[in-house]
Amino acid sequence: MTNTSVVTEFVLLGFPLFYNTNILCFFVVLVMYSLSMFGNGFILIIVMIDQKLQTPMYGFLCNLAFLEICYTSIVIPKLLETFTSRRTTICYRCCMAQIFFIFSFGAIQLFLLTIMAFDRYIAICKPLRYTVIMTKNVCIQLAVGCWVGGFLYNFFQAVLVWTLPFCEKNVLDHYFCDLGPVLSLSCADTHLLEFLSLLSAISFVVITLFLIVVSYVYIISTILHIPSAIGRKKAFSTCTSHLTVVSILYGAIAFLYIRPNVHSSFQFSKVVAVLNTVLAPMLNPFIYTIRNVEVKQAFWRAVHKTGGPLKEKIFLRRVAGK
């Protein structure tokens, strides 16, 4: 296949069924996007300023938060534009780049969640060796490996998509450049690429999910052998947030990409894609922080540090005023 494309841009349909409620949808998505940016930004800031949170688990959580910021920032702005513009377009190269980054960030996220499961396994099943195994250098290498591995994993598929010819049809039935809608517009035979994408997605998702499940089998087995009920509850509480995020993400991925025909059910796929691109990035930081005692304590320590000097300044100004 050679790049004989005469298409210079794609038209994003967005959600034409919700045309009468575009303004409402715009503000709902904007609020969710703002909450996602705030929540993930909060995680980055609180971990950086609090020494007690600078541990492997929160280091990986920072990577996940930064990833969510990048992921939503390449998808949601165009979604918002589809609600405010009658004709939303994206240039050909921008579309190809969006496909590459969306799938690369997705792969990085799966890598990070797998590493976080391994981190919890070491912390609960081998607590005495945790500091020896999860050293600072090891954590940095694992984090870098997740990012490099995610980009390399999707590189060859992105090259194949980039070489596809597009001959006239340029209307994408989606709010971003997803693989299925883009393949449906190509004037070449894409069955082989669809099969390779499906095989790659299944193998990658199954392998990472298998590693996570195995980690939690050992974790749950160890927790059940803890004699104290309080100890069991405390140990399991460090895993519930991670398990919730894993369940949401893998559920959405299974429906969106692990299907025999990537062209099918575009309308319903767009609704489910919102779960993965809008709702999950908004919920993830709150899932990790609302029930996390350490993050709450770090927040109040930060408030106390900034509030103490501020109160002192106010007091001195009042004294000077008198």
From TrEMBL:
Q: Which SUPFAM superfamilies match?
A: Family A G protein-coupled receptor-like (SSF81321)
The membrane topology noted for this protein in its Swiss-Prot or TrEMBL record is: Multi-pass membrane protein
List each copy of the G-protein coupled receptors family 1 profile domain by range: 39-288
The cross-references to PROSITE patterns, in alphabetical order and at most eight, read: G_PROTEIN_RECEP_F1_2 (PS50262)
Q: Give a yes or no for keyword Ion transport in this entry.
A: no
- Gene3D superfamilies listed in its UniProt record: Rhodopsin 7-helix transmembrane proteins
Q: Where are the transmembrane segments?
A: 20-46, 58-76, 96-118, 138-156, 195-219, 240-259, 271-290
Asked if the keyword Transmembrane helix belongs to this entry, the reply reads yes
Q: Which residues form a coiled coil?
A: none
Task: Recite the UniProt keywords alphabetically.
Answer: Cell membrane, G-protein coupled receptor, Membrane, Olfaction, Receptor, Sensory transduction, Transducer, Transmembrane, Transmembrane helix
Compartments reported by the entry: Cell membrane
PANTHER family given for it?
Answer: OLFACTORY RECEPTOR (PTHR26454), OLFACTORY RECEPTOR 6X1 (PTHR26454:SF30)
Q: What is this protein called?
A: Olfactory receptor 6X1-like
